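Quick log. Single chain, no ligands specified.
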Amino acid sequence: MYIGIDVGTSGVKALAVDYQGTVLAEHSVSYELSAPREGWAEQNPRDWLDAAVSCIAKLTETEKCAGISFSGQMHGLVLLDDEAVVLRPAIIWCDQRTSKEAAELTELIGAERLAEITGSQAMTGFTAAKILWVKNNEPEIWAKTRHILLPKDYVRLMLTGIVSTEPSDAAGTQLFDINSLDWSDEILEKLGIPRKLLPEIMRSNAETGRYGDIRVFSGGADNACGAIGVGVTKPGSAMLSIGTSGVILAPVDRAVTDPRGRIHTLCSALPGQRMLMSCTQSAALSVKWFTELCGDIDYDDIPDSTNVVFLPYLNGERSPHPDPNAKGVFFGLTANTTRGEMLRAVYEGVAFSQRECLDVFRELGVEITSLTATGGGAKNRKWLQIFADILGAAIEAPELDQGAAYGAALLAIDNGQLIIDNERTVYVPDSTADYTRKYELYKELYVKLKTTFERLG
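-> predicted structure:
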């Protein structure tokens, strides 16, 4: 038995998997996200560790475990002192406090040079800007810092005593050179970050220590592991992840970089492979927010069309508009608008955002011949049909969809190369659906509201 552990935003999910890739058992433990100020997002790293240990204990009650591998939320910042004690709450991926620091990063490195080295322009959600924020605002914390880690790597350190990371997660820090697959001395020097604070880079499938007598492997970033879990491992294929955020991820055999910084070039968890990734900050989160606010809505009450348009910028936006000031918008409401129409507009708005991202992939010459849906939103049949219609592409929904934890387990079993027989439901575009006019209106709204978002702050 091998265990894959995903250190997620809402909780830890762990899967027990046999050598053929069959899921034997699963267990999860949830925890809280703290938002001490608007736009901030923090978590207690100890909560991740306690949840992971609880999951391991539950899954090994009756079965011996041969190995543990990890996936985890990207871009988080965990700061430890010289005794590996957490110095402050972790600043996680969706935190938007670092606009000033992202601008500082661009000024210090240069936008073009930063993209050449890291595959992305400066982003508020990435780790480098968070480090600058701590240096600028909490110098007493920075002075005590001896280790900088990502979420899953903190948990693995606590289990094994080994300080390490791997390329797929390191590439999301903006301190990593995606060409040399090592920390960038140029960036570290200009930001004033000593290299000794950063963990050693190991392969994603490398054994990195032991937890008792159980072998422990590096694992990978959540989206990189999620792609492996649903078989998206070759150029031409792409993963459409509909979770808290919305992601399109496409493996590529060369480092393709978007000069305008709308999407990111990162590293796969498979040796030598890169991946292009876009991220819509609020995907299923938009649906969760709306239904919590307005109540659950029956499928029969969701109409086949609506004139309402929704901009899903509830947590600012990342792709294709790196804009922490962006806000959520309902446009076109009337006294006759129903809750069902508004929910359909939310579904469509998230899909329009993904369409904008997919257009960037196509503009960069990345050919995508198949899209595989994963995540909680992929269980929503109506939403997948809307995605197929708006993206203008067939979307496959695999029967076995256990997320990033499953891909992490496969990395330990067979270096992520195990071929799983997985039945798929295919959603093809409806020939009568025409979103052309509405998509153009959707894109136009952001352009017209951008300066208004800045004024609102």
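Residues 2-222 form a domain with the Nucleotidyltransferase; domain 5 fold (CATH 3.30.420.40).
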